[in-house]
């Protein structure tokens, strides 16, 4: 039996080497960081993401989609589309693309605003960017 009250979504800030992951609470109101996956290939990325999907049982995925400031698709959008095409062969739930413009710089600003330095820990930015992407989606689609 499917739990109709579960509205948990996973947020994804996709990168070729690092993938920031966030999740919403079961009500679909609040996003929080989960982890940053460090991967060497798309195949490894898909496998790691499928493990998280199995663990968290989300009702859908929200993937950051890096549009240009003009609103046009960037070259990175093509990479993400190829990744999602591979992922969708093993995951049949809905996948939503969310405009992620400025999410990484916003994440860095938040870290700096709290008096912290980023240094070599780029994984923190990726996790926080995933939270920002997912929270934008949740805010836009709140009923």
The total number of structural domains is 1
**Which architecture does the CATH hierarchy give at level 2?**
2-Layer Sandwich
Low-confidence stretches: none
Q: Predict the CATH topology.
A: Nucleotidyltransferase, domain 5
Number of strands: 5
What portion of residues belong to β-strands?
15-25%
H and E string:
EEEHEHEHH
CATH fourth-tier homologous superfamily: YqgF/RNase H-like domain
Pairing-aware structural class of the strands and helices? alpha/beta
Largest sheet: 5 strands, mixed
Strand order of the largest sheet: 3-2-1-4-5
Please give the CATH class: Alpha Beta
Overall mean confidence score, pLDDT: 87
Count of helix runs: 4
Radius of gyration (CA) equals 15 Å
Distance between the termini: 24 Å
Report the helical percentage.
40-55%
Shape: globular
């Amino acid at each position: 039996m499917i739990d109709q009250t579960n509205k948990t979504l996973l947020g994804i800030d996709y990168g070729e080497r690092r993938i920031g992951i966030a999740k919403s609470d079961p009500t679909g109101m609040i996003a929080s960081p989960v982890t940053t996956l460090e991967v060497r290939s798309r195949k490894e990325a898909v496998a790691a993401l499928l493990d998280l999907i199995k663990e968290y049982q989300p009702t859908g995925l929200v993937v950051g989609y890096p549009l240009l400031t003009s609103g046009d698709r960037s070259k990175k959008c093509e990479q993400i589309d190829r990744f999602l095409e591979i992922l969708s062969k093993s995951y049949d739930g809905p996948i939503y693309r969310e405009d992620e413009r400025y999410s990484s710089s916003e994440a860095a600003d938040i870290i700096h605003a709290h008096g912290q330095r980023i240094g070599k820990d780029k994984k923190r930015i990726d996790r926080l960017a995933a939270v920002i992407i997912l929270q934008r989606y949740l805010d836009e689609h709140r009923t």
